Amino acid sequence: MNDKEKELFDFLDEKKAQVLARVQELASQGRIDDSNILKAKSNIYDICRSVFGVAAKQSTDGTVKAAFLSTFGNITGQWQKSLDQAKAHDDSHKILIEEAKFSAVSEILAKIEELF
How far from 45 is each of 4, 23, 40, 76, CA to CA, in Å? Predict the structure, then answer.
Protein backbone atom coordinates (compact mmCIF):
# COMPACT_ATOMS: atom_id res chain seq x y z
CA MET A 1 0.00 0.00 0.00
CA ASN A 2 1.44 3.34 -0.99
CA ASP A 3 1.16 6.61 0.93
CA LYS A 4 -1.78 7.91 -1.13
CA GLU A 5 -3.75 4.71 -0.60
CA LYS A 6 -3.01 4.80 3.13
CA GLU A 7 -4.15 8.41 3.31
CA LEU A 8 -7.37 7.53 1.49
CA PHE A 9 -8.07 4.58 3.78
CA ASP A 10 -7.33 6.70 6.87
CA PHE A 11 -9.74 9.33 5.52
CA LEU A 12 -12.44 6.71 4.96
CA ASP A 13 -11.96 5.26 8.44
CA GLU A 14 -12.12 8.71 10.04
CA LYS A 15 -15.25 9.73 8.13
CA LYS A 16 -16.97 6.45 8.98
CA ALA A 17 -16.10 6.87 12.67
CA GLN A 18 -17.54 10.39 12.64
CA VAL A 19 -20.77 9.22 11.05
CA LEU A 20 -21.10 6.27 13.43
CA ALA A 21 -20.59 8.58 16.41
CA ARG A 22 -23.45 10.71 15.10
CA VAL A 23 -25.53 7.53 14.54
CA GLN A 24 -25.12 6.61 18.21
CA GLU A 25 -25.87 10.16 19.33
CA LEU A 26 -29.11 10.20 17.34
CA ALA A 27 -30.10 6.75 18.58
CA SER A 28 -29.51 7.81 22.18
CA GLN A 29 -31.88 10.73 21.57
CA GLY A 30 -34.54 8.34 20.30
CA ARG A 31 -34.15 9.58 16.73
CA ILE A 32 -34.03 6.09 15.25
CA ASP A 33 -35.10 7.04 11.71
CA ASP A 34 -32.37 9.69 11.48
CA SER A 35 -29.90 7.23 12.95
CA ASN A 36 -30.79 4.57 10.36
CA ILE A 37 -30.41 7.04 7.51
CA LEU A 38 -26.88 7.83 8.64
CA LYS A 39 -26.08 4.12 8.95
CA ALA A 40 -26.57 3.89 5.19
CA LYS A 41 -24.04 6.69 4.78
CA SER A 42 -21.51 4.92 6.99
CA ASN A 43 -21.69 1.83 4.78
CA ILE A 44 -20.56 3.86 1.76
CA TYR A 45 -17.10 4.29 3.27
CA ASP A 46 -16.72 0.51 3.54
CA ILE A 47 -17.95 0.00 -0.01
CA CYS A 48 -15.47 2.56 -1.26
CA ARG A 49 -12.65 0.94 0.67
CA SER A 50 -13.45 -2.43 -0.88
CA VAL A 51 -13.80 -1.10 -4.42
CA PHE A 52 -10.59 0.90 -4.15
CA GLY A 53 -8.72 -2.07 -2.71
CA VAL A 54 -9.71 -4.22 -5.67
CA ALA A 55 -8.86 -1.43 -8.13
CA ALA A 56 -5.44 -0.99 -6.50
CA LYS A 57 -4.66 -4.70 -6.77
CA GLN A 58 -5.69 -4.83 -10.42
CA SER A 59 -4.02 -1.60 -11.53
CA THR A 60 -0.74 0.23 -11.62
CA ASP A 61 -0.42 3.58 -9.87
CA GLY A 62 -1.32 5.42 -13.05
CA THR A 63 -4.56 3.56 -13.64
CA VAL A 64 -5.95 2.97 -10.14
CA LYS A 65 -8.04 6.15 -10.18
CA ALA A 66 -9.65 5.29 -13.52
CA ALA A 67 -10.30 1.70 -12.44
CA PHE A 68 -11.85 2.87 -9.19
CA LEU A 69 -14.00 5.55 -10.83
CA SER A 70 -15.30 3.11 -13.43
CA THR A 71 -16.43 0.52 -10.88
CA PHE A 72 -17.60 3.05 -8.30
CA GLY A 73 -19.50 4.91 -11.02
CA ASN A 74 -21.43 1.75 -11.85
CA ILE A 75 -22.38 1.36 -8.22
CA THR A 76 -23.39 4.98 -7.72
CA GLY A 77 -25.37 4.82 -10.95
CA GLN A 78 -27.63 2.26 -9.28
CA TRP A 79 -28.04 4.57 -6.30
CA GLN A 80 -28.96 7.41 -8.65
CA LYS A 81 -31.67 5.23 -10.20
CA SER A 82 -32.96 4.44 -6.72
CA LEU A 83 -33.00 8.15 -5.85
CA ASP A 84 -34.83 8.99 -9.07
CA GLN A 85 -37.44 6.31 -8.36
CA ALA A 86 -37.88 7.54 -4.80
CA LYS A 87 -38.46 11.06 -6.08
CA ALA A 88 -40.92 9.80 -8.70
CA HIS A 89 -42.88 8.00 -5.97
CA ASP A 90 -42.47 10.84 -3.45
CA ASP A 91 -40.82 8.44 -0.98
CA SER A 92 -39.27 10.95 1.38
CA HIS A 93 -37.59 8.34 3.60
CA LYS A 94 -35.86 6.66 0.65
CA ILE A 95 -34.87 10.07 -0.74
CA LEU A 96 -33.14 10.91 2.54
CA ILE A 97 -31.25 7.60 2.53
CA GLU A 98 -30.06 8.01 -1.06
CA GLU A 99 -29.09 11.64 -0.49
CA ALA A 100 -27.09 10.61 2.58
CA LYS A 101 -25.23 8.10 0.41
CA PHE A 102 -24.46 10.79 -2.16
CA SER A 103 -23.20 13.04 0.59
CA ALA A 104 -20.55 10.43 1.35
CA VAL A 105 -19.87 9.89 -2.36
CA SER A 106 -19.18 13.60 -2.82
CA GLU A 107 -16.67 13.60 0.03
CA ILE A 108 -14.97 10.47 -1.29
CA LEU A 109 -14.72 11.71 -4.87
CA ALA A 110 -13.24 15.01 -3.69
CA LYS A 111 -10.60 13.11 -1.70
CA ILE A 112 -9.82 10.87 -4.68
CA GLU A 113 -9.32 13.96 -6.86
CA GLU A 114 -7.07 15.50 -4.21
CA LEU A 115 -4.90 12.41 -3.85
CA PHE A 116 -4.81 10.98 -7.36
Answer: 16, 14, 10, 13
Cα separation, 8 vs 115, whole angstroms = 8
Is this structure's pTM higher than 0.70? yes
Tell me the residue type at 61: D
Tens digits of per-residue pLDDT, 28-52? 999 999 999 999 999 999 999 999 9
Residue type, 6: K
65: how many CB neighbours lie within 10 A of its CB? 17
d(CA 58, CA 9): 17
